[in-house]
């Protein structure tokens, strides 16, 4: 059930659009690996899955499974299975026969198909519901059946199109745990489409950010957060801080002063934008060592945490406070920007030469 999926130059235009839905994307999912396609609605994520599954035809580009081209091969012969947000179970069949269905289609005798199906039902923890009809199941149970049915087909590549997005948070977390366990048990090759960053972080080995039909960056999720290649990626992933300035001799120079950059941040000398995730910034009392001094200007509750706006050198930085930390507007604070969390984006991928302004202004220009 493990094969390498290789996508090269995949492009799809639709007549009613003025730009390609997918624009020459390249992507590899190694055998037994899981790659998430993460992007906003309309970015081309589901189109990519449909092209791999054979439900649509690319205008150019190739899709290979273990080096075998899928060009001209109908969906039923591709050895791929696509699982949708809706489980799409057969209402007239019980759970066991739903899972056995692809095995029967492939020619297995009914008894053998049901025996195999029972094993996959056990994998998803639904053995006791084998003789129930889909109408009697919860949403999470239905999606477990859909996963069992997909795996029973023993696909070379499992394609998941936001399969857990309709579930409530608790059930969604349970499904994430289940998929992690299934990966350990049967090692399927998975291409997952999602708009949920947390889902990508939990399930995928690497994540490809798809913006406007192009893969803007493909890396581990922690690298996407800490080392975005552009302000568009930084903004899409929820980054709130972007400071216009210049890079010179391994440091960023701006209204915030001179801030050293990590050794792995290699940016040409000249204009560049400093980006630091709000989760990475710490606020400390003014009598402690800090990189900057500021004044709290606003606090917005976010459950157990809060977004804290701090005015520094006439501009606003966004930070996060943790459980037990309390700040009020007007508080004077020290601001710590951990060295390893600092990053700089050069103008070719951030802002046009000569632009300046607050971090929020710069971020808005780069993402609109």
Give a short overview.
InterPro entries: AAA+_ATPase (IPR003593), ABC_SmlMolc_Importer (IPR050093), ABC_transporter-like_ATP-bd (IPR003439), ABC_transpr_FbpC (IPR015853), Mo/tungstate-bd_C_term_dom (IPR008995), P-loop_NTPase (IPR027417), Transp-assoc_OB_typ2 (IPR013611). It holds the Pfam family TOBE_2. With 368 residues, this protein is an alpha+beta fold.
Task: Please tell me about this protein's structure.
This protein is an alpha+beta fold. It has three domains: 5-222, Rossmann fold (3-Layer(aba) Sandwich), CATH 3.40.50; 240-276 and 342-368, no CATH class; 281-336, Nucleic acid-binding proteins (OB fold (Dihydrolipoamide Acetyltransferase, E2P), Beta Barrel), CATH 2.40.50. The protein has helices at 45-53, 95-105, 110-123, 139-152, 169-186, 197-203, 221-226, 231-236, 359-367; strands at 5-12, 22-29, 34-38, 60-65, 68-69, 80-83, 157-161, 189-194, 206-211, 214-219, 242-248, 251-254, 257-260, 270-275, 282-284, 292-302, 305-312, 315-321, 332-336, 343-345. The strands form four sheets. It has a six-stranded mixed β-sheet, with helices on both faces. Strands 13-12-11-14-20 form a five-stranded antiparallel β-sheet. Helix 2 (95-105) packs parallel to helix 4 (139-152). Residues 349-368 have low confidence and may be disordered. Residues 5-237 form the ABC transporter domain. Residues 343-368 are annotated as: Disordered.
């Amino acid at each position: 059930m493990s094969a390498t999926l290789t996508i090269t130059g995949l492009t799809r235009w639709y007549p009613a659009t003025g730009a390609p839905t997918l624009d020459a994307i390249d992507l590899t999912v190694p055998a037994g690996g899981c790659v998430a396609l993460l992007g906003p609605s309309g970015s081309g994520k589901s189109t990519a899955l449909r092209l791999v599954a054979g439900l649509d035809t690319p205008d150019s580009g190739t899709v290979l499974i273990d080096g075998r081209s899928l060009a001209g091969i109908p969906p039923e012969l591709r050895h791929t299975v696509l699982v949708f947000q809706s489980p799409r179970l057969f209402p007239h069949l019980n759970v066991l026969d739903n899972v056995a269905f692809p095995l029967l289609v492939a020619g297995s005798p009914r008894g053998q198909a049901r025996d195999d199906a029972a094993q996959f039902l056990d994998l998803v923890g639904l053995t006791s519901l084998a003789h129930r009809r889909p109408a009697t199941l919860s949403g999470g149970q239905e999606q477990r059946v859909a996963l069992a049915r997909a795996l029973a087909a023993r696909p070379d590549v499992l394609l998941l199109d936001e399969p857990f997005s309709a579930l409530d948070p608790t059930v969604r977390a349970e499904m994430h745990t289940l998929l992690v366990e299934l990966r350990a048990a049967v090692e399927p090759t998975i291409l997952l489409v999602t708009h949920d960053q947390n889902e990508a972080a939990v399930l995928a080995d690497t994540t490809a950010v798809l913006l406007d039909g192009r893969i803007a960056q493909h890396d581990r999720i922690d690298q996407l957060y800490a080392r975005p290649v552009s302000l568009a990626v930084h903004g899409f992933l929820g980054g709130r801080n972007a400071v216009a300035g210049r890079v010179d001799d391994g440091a960023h120079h701006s209204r915030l002063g001179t801030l050293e950059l990590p050794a792995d941040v290699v940016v040409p000398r000249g204009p560049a934008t400093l980006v630091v995730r709000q989760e990475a910034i710490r606020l400390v009392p003014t009598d402690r060592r800090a990189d900057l001094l500021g004044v709290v200007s606003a606090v917005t509750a976010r459950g157990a945490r809060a977004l804290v706006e701090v005015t520094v050198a006439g501009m606003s930085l966004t930070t996060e406070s943790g459980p037990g930390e309390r700040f009020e507007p007007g508080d004077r604070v020290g601001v710590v920007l951990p060295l390893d969390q600092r990053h700089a984006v050069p103008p070719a991928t951030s802002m046009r030469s000569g632009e300046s302004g607050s971090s929020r202004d710069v971020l808005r220009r780069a993402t609109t």
